[in-house]
Amino acid sequence: MPVSAGQDPITVAVLHGGETPPGLERHAGDARLRFAADAGELAAVLPGSDVLLTWDFTSDAVKDVWEATDTDALRWVHTASAGVDRVAFPALLASGATLTNSRGVFDRPIAEFVLGAVIAFAKDTARSLTLQRERTWRHRETETVAGKVATVVGSGPIGRAVADLLGAVGMRVRLVGRRAADGVHAFDELPGLLPDTDHLVLAAPLTDATRGMLHAGTIALLPERARVVNVGRGALVVQDDLTDALATGRLAGAALDVFETEPLPATSPLWAMEHVLLSPHMSGDVVGWKDMLVELFADNLARFRDGRELRNVVDPERGYVSSSAGKV
């Protein structure tokens, strides 16, 4: 259903975490902006606000202040991320406020990141850099990616973009979604797909069904040559189980962009593993990404003002944007 803003100027609360969204004032038109850096400030600006923009999508401030704050006026919550797990808590979902995300901004960048990780493993890039620093000439043979099997969990835009790029370099790609569809395997088929998987790519939203999906049991189904690439959410993986599998050689490697605890503690053994590629939750963050996030929100703000359908409406039962939601 369209969300109508009515006739009065729109009031937008912005949880920014210390960084103001670039150009937001210019794009906001006559909307009244109320900025909050943290939970304390958010509790002060949220009452009476029509809209909440969670620019700081790593913060739990919305959940922390929700129950003790007057949110009766709030009709729309937007998060500047593809994942909604920090804001899709039961009380917000039950409030009647429409929840939208930033789907579409990160698809291609994350797909390129995954392809880069797959090729880096195949061509032993990390070892080449180490030997270069050591001024050591050591000839080796590397792998080809053509013909290798990639199982991509997550059939939304990010997962499909990953599948397209991996397929373009000759990999055999299986896409796994919540349920079976044309060209998509159902999530409950995943155990049967793991034994011949060379690269397991996790690009699924974090839901009750996907939380902890990669654990000792599912890892045991993968061949020892398999590598794991996680660009979804850290909680998709039982990190201790994955760490143990990597330490013992049960898996050949992993490229991890997200973790159970972020930043990843300096005490984590993952830091020292030669066959592990670590990055600080940046797989979708390319030059200009913040501007794209603001432009997406601004477009939805105009839609909200006019009473038109919002883009990227999250299905409160599924916890992600369904294929039929969020019409442009």
Automatic annotation (TrEMBL):
Residues 116-283 form the D-isomer specific 2-hydroxyacid dehydrogenase NAD-binding domain. Pfam families: 2-Hacid_dh, 2-Hacid_dh_C. CDD domains: 2-Hacid_dh_1. Keywords: NAD, Oxidoreductase. It comes from the Bacteria. Coiled coil: none annotated. GO terms for molecular function: NAD binding; oxidoreductase activity, acting on the CH-OH group of donors, NAD or NADP as acceptor. Residues 35-314 form the D-isomer specific 2-hydroxyacid dehydrogenase catalytic domain. Belongs to the D-isomer specific 2-hydroxyacid dehydrogenase family. PANTHER family: 2-HACID_DH_C DOMAIN-CONTAINING PROTEIN, D-ISOMER SPECIFIC 2-HYDROXYACID DEHYDROGENASE NAD-BINDING DOMAIN-CONTAINING PROTEIN. This is Phosphoglycerate dehydrogenase-like enzyme. The lineage of its organism: Bacteria, Bacillati, Actinomycetota, Actinomycetes, Pseudonocardiales.
